[in-house]
Amino acid sequence: MSALSKAKGFKKSRAGTYLSIATTAFGAMSVVKQARKARTESDALLLLDAVVSAAAIATGLAILVRELKRVGDDDVLFG
User: Cβ of 41: how many Cβ atoms within 10 Å?
Assistant: First the structure.
């Protein structure tokens, strides 16, 4: 298996899924900052945007965790 084909399969590997979870969780920090700013400024529209973004992040994390459960012994980077 060539290095290029391994790199293409990284997204479907266990390590790639962990990396996706970490970057998604890192994005959650900006949503928390946005929500705090919206609450201090009493900006309902900005708060609504933060809530919708938080829901999208929660859904994305749930999908990634499900994908992590599906990745089993057929991990492309290990064999």
Answer: 10
